[in-house]
């Protein structure tokens, strides 16, 4: 039973969910451009509490502290483990797709923070791993 459930999860495409917050910010009309640039930098969603510092810095203190309210969970429609299979996909995306895949970067950051294994090659002693032909 356990292996059946595990295989059912593995067969389905993996997706990441993110929390979506509703943000209320008050600012003057002259500062709206700077406010929009800060919000668009964060893909229109609020991800961290440093937003208030960033807003106050960019708008020279004209924006108030944002009021954040949890709205819902949203599925990010991007496969974090996508690998190009066909020649056409390789032309479109390149060989190293995960460099531009922000979902993969989120997963790698969480795995690094928690001390879990990652897909990263670490060379402990490079001088012992050299292969020189004589």
From TrEMBL:
<dbReference type="InterPro" id="IPR035647">
    <property type="entry name" value="EFG_III/V"/>
</dbReference>
<dbReference type="GO" id="GO:0005829">
    <property type="term" value="C:cytosol"/>
</dbReference>
<dbReference type="GO" id="GO:0042256">
    <property type="term" value="P:cytosolic ribosome assembly"/>
</dbReference>
<dbReference type="GO" id="GO:0043022">
    <property type="term" value="F:ribosome binding"/>
</dbReference>
<dbReference type="GO" id="GO:1990904">
    <property type="term" value="C:ribonucleoprotein complex"/>
</dbReference>
<dbReference type="GO" id="GO:0003924">
    <property type="term" value="F:GTPase activity"/>
</dbReference>
<protein>
    <submittedName>
        <fullName>Uncharacterized protein</fullName>
    </submittedName>
</protein>
């Amino acid at each position: 039973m356990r292996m059946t459930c595990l295989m059912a999860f593995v067969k389905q495409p993996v997706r990441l969910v993110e929390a979506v917050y509703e943000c209320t910010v008050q600012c003057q009309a002259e500062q709206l451009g700077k406010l929009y640039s800060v919000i668009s930098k964060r893909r229109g969603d609020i991800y961290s509490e440093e937003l208030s510092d960033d807003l106050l810095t960019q708008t020279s203190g004209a924006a108030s502290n944002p009021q954040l309210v949890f709205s819902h969970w949203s599925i990010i429609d991007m496969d974090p483990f996508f690998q190009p299979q066909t020649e056409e996909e390789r032309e479109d995306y390149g060989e190293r797709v995960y460099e531009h895949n922000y979902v993969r970067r989120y997963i790698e950051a969480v795995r690094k923070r928690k001390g879990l294994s990652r897909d990263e090659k670490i060379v402990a002693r490079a001088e012992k791993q050299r292969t020189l032909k004589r």
